[in-house]
User: Fold these one by one.
Assistant:
Number 1:
Amino acid sequence: MKLRTILFFTLIVFLAAPQKSSGQIWKKLFGKEEKRKPRPRPKPAIKPKDKQAGEIATKKKRKTLEYPASKIKSRYRIDVLVPLYLDELVKDNKLSFKDKIPEKAAIGVSFYEGIKLAADTLTAMGYNVDVFIHDVTQQGLTPNELVKGEVLEETDLVIGALQSAQIPVVAEFAKKRQVNFISVISPSDANVKDNLFFTMLQPTLETHCERIREAALKKTSGKKTILFYRTNDNVDSLAYSYILSEGEKPFTKVLLNKLLQKKQLEQSFDSASTNFIVMPIVDNGYAESILQQLHEWFPRYQFEVFGMPSWKFINTLRKPDAYPNVAVNFTSPFHYDITTTMAQTLSANYKKQFGGRMAEMVFRGYDVVFWYAYLLQNYGTVYNTKQSDNKVAPFIKFEIKPQWDIQQNLLYNENEHLFLYRYQSASFLVNSLD
């Protein structure tokens, strides 16, 4: 039995009840959670004919955010809500799987491993922070049951790897108790509004589309930019509307509700220069088929394509012979440079405790718990006005900003820090979008 499996069994025993610890994914998420109207935002300019209405609209100013006094404590408590599926993975005190942890539990287990490593680091550094793990798939420990009971009564911070439907009840609890709730997995706001204490680390699809549009238009510098879009898929149609939130003028639009013929596409391209394409298609399979067609039909043309965050999971991007004449760009809130000293140290500690190679969720668990423990330790329970202090964040310098509706009412807080990935011929570059 592998070391990681042995340690996982130890984890199962350890988490039989809440215990103290010292110290095509995007498509599925967006498809199930983002079926909502686009978040209305103020337009950048007022047309002359709309001046009167615009003046009325702009009279209402954003509320001043008023936080309660922060509580400075001798010791802080962080509660982490994570799906581990322990009841399914252990039957009669025996593991119900062989070697490999089932896929649906793998994300939660990897996230836990990162949290455990962070807790160990915090203990070694003398932090006065306790981390409690709750398997929200267990009877009695669902988010609804946790907030109704006494388990979270003493919490100073809740971190949740939760799905959209589980978010509102925890967000409401956080608002009433005036403790922060950090949503780390879901890109859905779950229709939460007017909540100073709810923060999304995974930006919404709308935010991704706004930033990819900005990056694309900055790169093209006024050159012809083609917009491939489709309206017969709910999520892709929503992404298309977000891309056009600031207007249609920069784009030459091409509808792709069904795959076009080569002659229909050829008239949109230029063989003598780079062809810039913005493609708000979240469906990886459909997007991949279009990329393949661009390469096969136009091998002597050069393309620069700007796509969706889901494209991070298109495996052919990592193959050297896959459409070498097509450069592919997409946004992601996460990037972990495994060559850094910190990453190498974390990797060594991971091998010692769990064995094997770290998944991205290990990095994310470590990153989130370490940074928020730092904020608690240095600024108390209501650290919200100090979140620009991200210098000690191990890997991601999160940029947490309040979000507002068109009437300037507060919605929630959202991480706006994104990276731009650029793949071509299996090699890639990553740049931070400031």
Number 2:
Amino acid sequence: MSGHTTEVLVGGGVVAAAAGFLIYASQFAGVGAQTGAYDLSASFRSAEGVTVGTDVRLAGVKVGTVTDLDLNPETFRAEAQFAIDQSVILPDDTAVVVASEGLLGGTFIEVLPGGSAFNYEPGDEIQDTESAVSLVSLLLSFVGGGGAE
């Protein structure tokens, strides 16, 4: 019976450690319910690298998360929804850009606030967007254009 008791205790310890890790990871990654956030949307020609859970950043600071990403079958554009922290009030001439952290880095949505006196309301769509730049196509255009004189 002693061997069986040891197995149960070790199994319980493993389950407790896994549960603790999941709780820590969800808090650290900002996964979980976002309280104090409002929803905005934007339409991109290309949202390459953006997925649900992608950071939305303002001046390099995370202010939100992408909550949904779908293809609009009528316009063939990527429709992104994101939750923005309620403490961040964005002017209605704000732009959003699909940006990259570098050559091998991840992708995020960068918020470029405008100077309007009017602000976005929850559920509004940001009109001023810039899509992702494909590194492969950029390199191909550089290589292809470099030989022509």
Number 3:
Amino acid sequence: MNWDEIEGNWKQLKGKVRSQWGKLTDDDLDIINGKRTELAGLLQTRYGHAKEQAEREIDLWTEKLKQK
């Protein structure tokens, strides 16, 4: 699944995002609204990740989505 598909299906994927990153709130998910840069920024804020680590986690998560 590429990021355009994720952005387009964001409402359906919110639950999967929450199960992956439990520290993100419903308000956070509304702010992200399917935008990768917003997700990376909030992962940095909530988890204290460096930008590269946040991007790596997002890449791993999207790879898992492709496998399903």
Number 4:
Amino acid sequence: MIRVSLFMTLLIYSVIVLLMIFADQFSKFFIVRHFALGQKVSVIPGFFNLTNVRNTGAGFSILTDQTAFLSAVSVIAVIALIYLLRKEKDLFTRISYLMIIAGALGNLIDRFRLGYVVDFLDFYIFRYDFPVFNIADSFITIGCFLLILINIKESRHA
């Protein structure tokens, strides 16, 4: 097996996280630049819209107007995940951590820069208008989902 130096590993992780943050920030920039606040554009009628909204809370708009608290939690989570990432051997767990870190940082950038998070992905699932979210939220959700699957698989093999 090829042994990668610590420097190269950190460089690779940093590039991956920066690319995910770029995708998140670019998509938010595009929405803010081309959509009026509250504007909704149907992409797949009855299923998917692009909708420019501001979220001063967390997922599902919980903890509305708690920007300082949510920012602090994000910083602590990122630091904890970086610590765990350094010790982790499993590739899929590392990828999960990187996704969560990138998502947390993407939303943290919005909170510091704007005081709110830009959300725009608006789905209707079985006639339920799912809360509007963004790419950073998707990274966090997918990363957490992967961690759950990894833990289920590991518990079955224990």
